[in-house]
């Protein structure tokens, strides 16, 4: 009894500590609605991690797990730099892992999952489903496989399957990967505030600067599409503070700065982004064109065209990007061919919108309206989708519907596109 009495103060301290941790720890009851605190990380050294993993493989070249880890690192490098060249490196690492023997004679499961993530990165979403289902059959409790399936089904336009895979992931391993995907589904439903809360929770539990940068970039994208360029710029800057090489955040920051009238900063950030990745040259060119620098815009468009030819020559064309570019800056009939082919591969809201817009630019307005309506109704609060639908209704002579959609586009995000927003205002003024 005396021994129990002596232990009571200690037990009380332990219980008090547990209560305080529950209340005040990141994600705790009293801190769930607080914004993320200041960063405490050093800049993210993904290149150093890749180098360390390569050195380990020189000592242990037959380690399937380390080869799979190297593939994951290459995929992360592709995401943060928007440089598709890393996909080939990731493929090589995953394939090496798959060829190596494991204890049970089966392929190393993380390499199977990695191949699915790689397929998603290359927009081979049907292939991603095949890899994900192969992983599910072999190891149904490896939760990252459900991230592969969620992403693939979303892009294929199969939202019920995407939600089912995500629910399995949330039930088994609620965390950053599942929260960010749940936020994407909420955004597609037009539920911006729940999406924002999920992303804040993801930021709170980020385990390294790269994860934190990814979450902040998604918060920036959410703010941007919700018409808040100032909030978007803050989130992008937070991402870059954690990971200065995160190219999507650099381009996002440039986009937000242009909307806020900080043109010189926007041009500097765009120049930095496109020097590291060609993914944003069209966006940069459109801003230059809007500012009257047609020669500068043409140079950026030429870079895109050259990059697109290289992808096609390698057998991995980006038909969505090529179609969008041709619809706005090239041959609309070519755009329709690209996007019809892409529509056969995946029926996402982005492809529906792009195909509808290409058909409109090619003069086929009635056919365009069906795709534009589908994208606008299933794509959440998206100003670009609403604008495209308004333009198509205007071309069909439906003035009232056109004004409603154009006004809605500007109310969602008055900065959604330098040229598109100006055109929407001009049409409304004329009406």
TrEMBL record:
InterPro entries: TPR-like_helical_dom_sf, TPR_rpt. It comes from Nonomuraea rubra. SMART domains: TPR. This is Tetratricopeptide (TPR) repeat protein.
């Amino acid at each position: 009894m005396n021994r129990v009495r002596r232990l009571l103060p200690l037990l009380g301290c332990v219980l008090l500590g547990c209560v305080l941790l529950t209340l005040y720890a990141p994600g705790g009851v009293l801190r769930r609605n607080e914004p993320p605190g200041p960063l405490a990380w050093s800049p993210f050294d993904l290149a150093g991690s890749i180098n360390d993993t390569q050195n380990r493989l020189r000592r242990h070249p037959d380690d399937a797990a380390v080869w799979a880890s190297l593939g994951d690192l290459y995929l992360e490098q592709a995401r943060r730099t928007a440089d598709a060249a890393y996909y080939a490196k990731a493929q090589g690492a995953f394939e090496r892992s798959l060829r190596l023997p494991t204890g049970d004679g089966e392929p190393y499961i993380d390499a199977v999952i990695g191949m699915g993530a790689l397929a998603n990165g290359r927009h081979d979403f049907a292939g991603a489903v095949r890899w994900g289902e192969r992983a599910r059959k072999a190891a149904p409790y490896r939760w990252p496989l459900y991230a592969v399936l969620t992403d693939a089904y979303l892009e294929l336009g199969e939202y019920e399957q995407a939600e089912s895979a995500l629910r399995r992931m949330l039930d088994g391993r609620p965390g950053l990967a599942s929260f960010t995907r749940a936020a994407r589904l909420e955004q597609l439903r037009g539920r911006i505030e729940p999406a924002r809360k999920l992303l804040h929770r993801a930021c709170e539990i980020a385990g390294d600067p790269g994860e934190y940068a990814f979450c902040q970039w998604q918060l920036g994208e959410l703010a941007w599409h919700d018409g808040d360029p100032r909030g978007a710029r803050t989130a992008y800057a937070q991402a870059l503070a954690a990971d200065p090489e995160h190219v999507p955040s650099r381009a996002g920051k440039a986009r937000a700065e242009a909307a806020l009238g900080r043109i010189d900063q926007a041009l500097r950030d765009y120049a930095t982004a496109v020097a590291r990745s060609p993914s944003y040259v069209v966006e940069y060119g459109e801003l230059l064109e809007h500012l009257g620098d047609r020669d500068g815009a043409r140079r950026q468009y030429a870079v895109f065209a050259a990059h697109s030819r290289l992808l096609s020559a390698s057998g991995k064309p980006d038909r969505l990007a090529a179609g969008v570019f041709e619809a706005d800056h090239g041959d609309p009939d070519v755009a329709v061919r690209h996007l019809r082919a892409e529509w056969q591969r995946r029926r996402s809201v982005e492809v529906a919108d792009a195909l509808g817009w290409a058909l409109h630019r090619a003069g086929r307005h009635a056919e365009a309206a069906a795709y534009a309506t589908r994208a606008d109704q299933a794509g959440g609060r998206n100003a670009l989708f609403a604008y495209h639908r308004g333009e198509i209704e205007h071309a069909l002579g439906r003035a009232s519907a056109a004004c409603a959609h154009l006004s809605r586009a500007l109310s969602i995000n008055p900065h959604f596109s330098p040229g598109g927003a100006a055109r929407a205002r001009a049409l409304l003024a004329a009406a």
